[in-house]
Specification:
single chain, about 100 residues, 4 helices, about 0% strand
Length: about 100
């Protein structure tokens, strides 16, 4: 699985996604710790244990994609939510890079 928010805010006929769509994932912040806890408790018991690997992959995508890089540079609420999502994730050490 390759999780991303590339098409979170696409304008049909104009583009195939833009950085502004990453702000939509801010609602996942409270769930990221729950996902990590589920991953630990269910490890090896079912396929849901694989859900924990999604958060680091999303963080990687946010930092490496053109859309993510655009949001990282934003000087408004989009840039603030970008930083908050990385800071509140189990992969928060990625913010230091």
């Amino acid at each position: 699985m390759n999780p991303n928010f590339r098409y979170a805010q696409a304008v049909m006929g104009h583009d195939d996604g833009r950085g502004a769509g990453l702000i939509e994932s801010r609602h996942f912040i409270p769930n990221r710790h729950s996902i990590a806890l589920l991953d630990v408790r269910l490890r090896g018991r079912s396929q849901i244990s694989n859900v924990g690997c999604l958060v680091p992959r999303i963080c990687d995508w946010m930092q490496s994609s053109a859309n993510g890089k655009d949001e990282a540079k934003a000087k408004n609420n989009h840039g603030s939510w970008y930083a908050a999502q990385l800071a509140c994730s189990p992969c928060s050490s990625a913010m230091t890079s």
